[in-house]
Design a protein that fits this description.
The structure holds two protein chains of two kinds. Chain A is α/β, with parallel strands linked by helices. Chain A has one domain (10-131): Rossmann fold, CATH 3.40.50. Chain A has helices at residues 19-28, 50-58, 79-97, 114-128, and strands at 10-15, 37-42, 63-68, 104-108. Helices cover 37% and strands 16% of the residues of chain A. In chain A, strands 2-1-3-4 form a four-stranded parallel β-sheet, sandwiched between helices. Chain A starts with 9 loop residues before the first strand and ends in a 17-residue tail after the last helix. In chain A, strand 1 (10-15), helix 1 and strand 2 (37-42) form a beta-alpha-beta unit. In chain B, 32% of the residues lie in helices and 11% in strands. Chain B contains eleven helices and eight strands. In chain B, helix 7 crosses helix 9. Chain B is globular. The model of chain B has no long low-confidence stretch (mean pLDDT 92). The A-B interface holds A 50-51, 54-55, 58, 71-72, 78, 81-82, 84-101, 105-108, 120, 123, 136-140, 143, 145 and B 190-195, 197-198, 202, 223, 229, 231, 233, 237-240, 242-243, 246-247, 249-250, 253, 275, 278-279, 282-283, 286-287, 300-301, 304, 306, 308-310, 312-314.
Chain lengths: 145, 314
């Protein structure tokens, strides 16, 4: 049974040019979305090392959201195209080793999509809540092998 | 015969100064074992060996010659030649400084599998020559005793060489056995796969032998040794082990040549190669790419297509 009062902690990597501005727009427009995300601003989704995501999970994040500009809209021309390949492979790998599919989310949110940002965050939180607190890949302080 | 050819050729290379050193195999101290040698004089080459126990990927040593202006004669099997090609593509060593001696390879024999099948035998019961592998003068079928990675080998012949010892092999082990090691795992549920990998990763003692045996792990500072930021704790807990292997797999994505050097180096017999292998299978399917086969090919993570798979992104 999952504790109903439990709230997931979600790390959100948002690109500076689109998703971070999108989140800002959601804020200044007073759109409501769950307060479970902790935002980390990155220059570009292409600058997100897969290790960032793995490390977030290891440090105990219940979920990770990665968001960048729509394909074709990258401030650095092609950063998100490279990112898409990296994320695709990481996503497939995590799925294959058995990490729950809904732990790690990816989205494209532009600077004008405040509404979409709040919807994405709501969706992400809704899909992570039924999974309960993360246990896979989380650093264990007592080793029971 | 092949060993004689090899010794004559390498001696000639040293004598004519085509190469300053020869990186090859010598018999090990134990039966069914070989060790790498780096020979600079002709008499060291009298012991040069070529047999189904030459497991090391010698391309591993090229990284030490990046800034040493020496010409190297290197023995390469199919998989080793592919890793040399990746190193060339990544500009880790100039082609002019390499003399590649190609060795068509039928696969490496796993001593563990031999011992398991012939429990009451001594190493002297086994004999190997160009005609085949013999147990008490009876010829035995090699395939069941090959290393896991060799049973699924697609490239028995080096795609890149300057001189080929012997005749190219016409049929690969993959075509003979049709073995797919990923299939049984693919059939499991994600939870079962997690349990399987968690159990395997718990065995890891983080000696980094897999990384050190890998011909393509040449970073000056590996992410596991970085302390600022510290990606992975040095403590060998299952989660940290898992993170190390996942990180390694991401670094090998689209570069791994499936030689299995990491798996053979593992002192606690974790099937480490499964993760990079799965990665290469995905890349073959989605990006139609195989590493180390083509000259000057761009690794899949260094390029993109506008219609790459993107359904997983909301």
């Amino acid at each position: 049974m999952i504790d109903q009062s439990w709230e997931p902690k979600i790390v959100a990597f948002l690109c500076h040019w689109c998703s971070y501005a999108g989140a800002d727009l959601a804020g200044v427009s007073r759109m409501q979305y769950p307060p479970n995300i902790r935002v980390i601003r990155v220059p570009c989704s292409g600058a997100i090392n897969p290790l960032y995501i793995l490390k977030a999970l290891r440090e105990g994040a219940d979920g990770v959201l990665v968001s960048g500009c729509h394909p074709g809209d990258c401030h650095y021309i092609s950063g998100n195209f490279y990112a898409r390949r990296k994320f695709f492979l990481l996503n497939e790998l995590l799925k294959w080793v058995g990490v729950e599919e809904d732990r790690v989310h990816f989205s494209w949110v532009s600077a004008s999509e405040g509404q979409k940002f709040s919807e994405v965050v709501t969706q992400v939180v809704d899909s992570i809540k039924p999974l309960g607190p993360a246990r896979k890949l989380v650093k264990e302080f007592v080793v029971n092998v | 015969m092949f060993e004689e050819m090899l010794r004559d050729l390498t001696k000639k290379l040293l004598r004519e100064k085509t190469a300053d050193c020869v990186i090859g195999y010598a018999p090990g101290r134990l039966p069914f074992q070989t060790e790498p040698i780096i020979a600079t004089s002709e008499n060291e080459l009298n012991h040069l060996a070529w047999n189904p126990f030459c497991g090391y990927n010698l391309a591993r040593y090229l990284k030490y010659y990046k800034n040493v202006n020496q010409k190297i004669a290197l023995l390469v099997k199919g998989c080793d030649a592919r890793s040399v090609q990746v190193l060339l593509n990544e500009e880790q060593i100039p082609r002019e400084r390499l003399f590649l001696i190609g060795l068509p390879c039928r696969g490496l024999i796993s001593p563990e599998k031999l011992i398991k099948n012939y429990p009451n035998s001594s190493p002297n019961d086994f004999l190997w020559n160009e005609q085949g592998f013999f147990y008490r003068s009876q010829k035995i079928e090699l395939y069941p005793f090959l290393e896991d990675t060799c049973q699924r080998c697609r490239y028995p012949n080096p795609p890149l060489y300057d001189f080929l010892i012997g005749e190219p092999i016409t049929i690969s082990n993959y075509q003979i056995g049709k073995k797919d090691y990923l299939e049984p795992l693919d059939k499991l549920s994600p939870e079962e796969r997690w349990n399987y990998f968690y159990r395997e990763m718990s065995k890891c003692i983080r000696c980094y032998a897999c990384r050190n045996a890998c011909p393509l792990c040449y970073c000056q500072e590996c992410f596991v040794e970085s302390t600022k930021p510290q990606w992975v704790s040095p403590a060998a807990t299952p989660s940290d082990n898992f993170l190390f292997h996942l990180g390694r797999t991401m670094h090998m994505a689209g570069r791994c040549v499936e030689c299995g050097a990491c798996e053979r180096a593992c002192p606690v017999s974790i099937p480490i190669a499964l993760l990079p292998l799965k990665m290469e299978a995905i890349i073959r399917e989605e990006f139609q790419f195989e590493s180390g086969v083509e000259k000057e090919a761009l690794a899949p993570l260094l390029t993109y297509r506008e219609n790459d798979p993107g359904d997983f992104i909301k």
